[in-house]
């Protein structure tokens, strides 16, 4: 595994002026599946101490888990209707516990519930940024969670690990701390006596051979979700510390625990490209031939009409669209310059065959973000 720059990156996280702290459901609940006040108090103590030098945004899981005991459920519901009902009940309990705990320090909290649709629209994204920024100016701790009550199975973040990475990027955070019930990343299940701890991830090669599992009894994330979220945040230039909630004091002090995910300056996405790839709604799909895929993903070229073989969906000029290759796999996203009706009349035609008003790129390279580059 890579070993370069670990002390510097940990120091960067330890001195970050704005951080996002994400807490998993298992770190907030007890064996009886109810919200555990003592666990929340321990996290709040550490967050309050860090707020002497930094602004902190909390991304909290646990709404559905918090409803299990009040509703008499023995496990996390799987059907959408029951999950949303549980979220509606649990969100109240969870918000009350965060407010109670921070009140010990005379600090107010604010509940910020988001859906993927909120992050997918530019105007809503700007409103999120302004609201969270103003809350911080007022000394209020934003408690962010996915709004499971209204999110649909087709339009959701999937888990709060990914949500925390998006929040860290949208709010221009300097670091992301992911807290769960495991003290860091291992190459296999840590209960295995032969499991090897991975102190840092500098590039994707450091993840070769790593087997990360799924969610547990009350959560939806699991280690695979956390690794994905950490890499997502790192792509936008945000360093990530992954460790257990039991080590929250050290995590928010010198960051000398857990696994650090390094951002790669040479792979960093601009804020717009990150938004287009991971948060924006898609208005439709452009289907490319193999040559066009190679041009836009490997050579950084703009997408021209000649390389498009089909268009699906109805969209206007200026919307974000998915870009797929011959195998139907999404290779990127971009801001399309023509509406779908116009585009269908020019696809497959070379620039020389088009009239002057249609000769511009369908998606300019500056407004095209692809998934080809990895950490």
Automatic annotation (TrEMBL):
<dbReference type="GO" id="GO:0004349">
    <property type="term" value="F:glutamate 5-kinase activity"/>
</dbReference>
<keyword id="KW-0418">Kinase</keyword>
<dbReference type="InterPro" id="IPR036393">
    <property type="entry name" value="AceGlu_kinase-like_sf"/>
</dbReference>
<dbReference type="Pfam" id="PF00696">
    <property type="entry name" value="AA_kinase"/>
</dbReference>
<feature type="binding site">
    <location>
        <position position="148"/>
    </location>
    <ligand>
        <name>substrate</name>
    </ligand>
</feature>
<dbReference type="GO" id="GO:0005524">
    <property type="term" value="F:ATP binding"/>
</dbReference>
<dbReference type="GO" id="GO:0055129">
    <property type="term" value="P:L-proline biosynthetic process"/>
</dbReference>
<feature type="binding site">
    <location>
        <begin position="220"/>
        <end position="226"/>
    </location>
    <ligand>
        <name>ATP</name>
    </ligand>
</feature>
<comment type="function">
    <text>Catalyzes the transfer of a phosphate group to glutamate to form L-glutamate 5-phosphate.</text>
</comment>
<feature type="binding site">
    <location>
        <begin position="180"/>
        <end position="181"/>
    </location>
    <ligand>
        <name>ATP</name>
    </ligand>
</feature>
<feature type="binding site">
    <location>
        <position position="61"/>
    </location>
    <ligand>
        <name>substrate</name>
    </ligand>
</feature>
<dbReference type="InterPro" id="IPR015947">
    <property type="entry name" value="PUA-like_sf"/>
</dbReference>
<keyword id="KW-0963">Cytoplasm</keyword>
<keyword id="KW-0067">ATP-binding</keyword>
<feature type="binding site">
    <location>
        <position position="22"/>
    </location>
    <ligand>
        <name>ATP</name>
    </ligand>
</feature>
<dbReference type="Pfam" id="PF01472">
    <property type="entry name" value="PUA"/>
</dbReference>
<keyword id="KW-0808">Transferase</keyword>
<feature type="domain" description="PUA">
    <location>
        <begin position="284"/>
        <end position="363"/>
    </location>
</feature>
<comment type="pathway">
    <text>Amino-acid biosynthesis; L-proline biosynthesis; L-glutamate 5-semialdehyde from L-glutamate: step 1/2.</text>
</comment>
<dbReference type="InterPro" id="IPR002478">
    <property type="entry name" value="PUA"/>
</dbReference>
<dbReference type="InterPro" id="IPR001057">
    <property type="entry name" value="Glu/AcGlu_kinase"/>
</dbReference>
<dbReference type="InterPro" id="IPR041739">
    <property type="entry name" value="G5K_ProB"/>
</dbReference>
<keyword id="KW-0547">Nucleotide-binding</keyword>
<dbReference type="InterPro" id="IPR011529">
    <property type="entry name" value="Glu_5kinase"/>
</dbReference>
<keyword id="KW-0028">Amino-acid biosynthesis</keyword>
<keyword id="KW-0641">Proline biosynthesis</keyword>
<dbReference type="GO" id="GO:0005829">
    <property type="term" value="C:cytosol"/>
</dbReference>
<feature type="binding site">
    <location>
        <position position="160"/>
    </location>
    <ligand>
        <name>substrate</name>
    </ligand>
</feature>
<comment type="similarity">
    <text>Belongs to the glutamate 5-kinase family.</text>
</comment>
<dbReference type="InterPro" id="IPR036974">
    <property type="entry name" value="PUA_sf"/>
</dbReference>
<dbReference type="GO" id="GO:0003723">
    <property type="term" value="F:RNA binding"/>
</dbReference>
<dbReference type="InterPro" id="IPR001048">
    <property type="entry name" value="Asp/Glu/Uridylate_kinase"/>
</dbReference>
<protein>
    <recommendedName>
        <fullName>Glutamate 5-kinase</fullName>
        <ecNumber>2.7.2.11</ecNumber>
    </recommendedName>
</protein>
<dbReference type="InterPro" id="IPR019797">
    <property type="entry name" value="Glutamate_5-kinase_CS"/>
</dbReference>
<dbReference type="InterPro" id="IPR005715">
    <property type="entry name" value="Glu_5kinase/COase_Synthase"/>
</dbReference>
